[in-house]
Specification:
Layout lengths: L1 H15 L7 E4 L22 H9 L7 H4 L6 H16 L5 E4 L21 H6 L1
């Protein structure tokens, strides 16, 4: 939650203060709305709004009923990416915004250096 949701909210708020910002490009995932049969190029209602999830996680005794909120979601990553898109919708309002939903992200071709990656998850872990 702190990276996908809080980080996205803070980035959107930062973008609101940028006077010469041309556009905001948010990298999500093709799985951010996977409970839906079809995914269109639009915002979807999240299972929890951005501030509701942040409040739950920041509460003194965070007991989040995961079975209630994660029903239909393969994991917390896809779930929080959906909520992060809600943060973009709410906090980046008025900014030209693009949400990219790739199905997979792998190492770089050339930048910052050829083949750069900082973890061994997904296909990178299989190849390594």
């Amino acid at each position: 939650t702190s990276v996908n949701v809080c980080g996205t909210k803070e980035m959107a708020l930062l973008c609101q203060s940028m006077k010469h910002l041309k556009a905001l490009v948010h990298i999500s995932t093709a799985f951010s709305n996977c409970p839906n049969d079809q995914i269109a190029e639009r915002f979807y209602d999240p299972p929890l709004k951005t501030d509701e999830l942040i409040e739950l996680c920041n509460s003194e005794n965070p007991t989040i009923p995961t079975e209630k909120y994660l029903e239909g979601w393969p994991n917390t990553y896809a779930f929080t990416k959906c909520v992060a898109e809600d943060a973009i919708m709410k906090y980046a309002a008025g900014i030209p915004t693009c949400i990219v939903r790739p199905s997979i992200v792998i190492c770089t071709r050339s930048e910052p250096i050829e083949g750069w990656i900082d973890n061994y998850y997904g296909p990178a872990g299989y190849i390594a």
